[in-house]
Design goal:
Blueprint lengths: L3 H14 L4 H5 L7 H23 L4 H24 L6 H22 L5
Helix pairs in contact: 3-4, 3-5, 4-5
Length: 117
């Protein structure tokens, strides 16, 4: 019967010597891909704007919750797009996500600055 410690050692050596594909090293999502980073940074900035609006009293908690939900949907779409494309999003997907973020941004502004009667 073989020594289990020798088997474990041999297995570890083989695991360290075997090349790992780049896609496996990155994991399922390449969060640092420039297009993904830009979209995610923008979403983070909008979340800060929403939170600041609640803190200042310009947005109600209900308004903030609704806008956060919309942003969450955009993030979910971004992750789904990236999953389909090996961890990144295409330029067209980036444009579409930014278009959606523009709509949410306008909504945040309008809710924080209601038109005077």
């Amino acid at each position: 019967m073989a020594n289990p410690i020798k088997w474990l050692g041999a297995t570890l050596v083989l695991a360290l010597l075997c090349p790992v594909p780049a896609s496996a090293q990155l994991g399922k999502f390449d969060r640092n891909h420039p297009r993904r980073a830009q979209v995610n940074k923008r979403a983070n900035n909008q979340n800060k704007r929403i939170d600041q609006g609640v803190k200042s009293g310009a947005l109600s908690k209900g308004q903030a919750q609704q806008v956060h939900q919309e942003d969450k949907g955009i993030r979910k779409e971004e992750r789904a797009d990236a999953a389909k494309n090996g961890g990144h999003i295409t330029k067209q997907q980036q444009r579409q996500l930014n278009k959606q973020e523009n709509q949410v941004s306008k909504q945040i502004y309008q809710e924080k600055h209601p038109a005077a009667p």
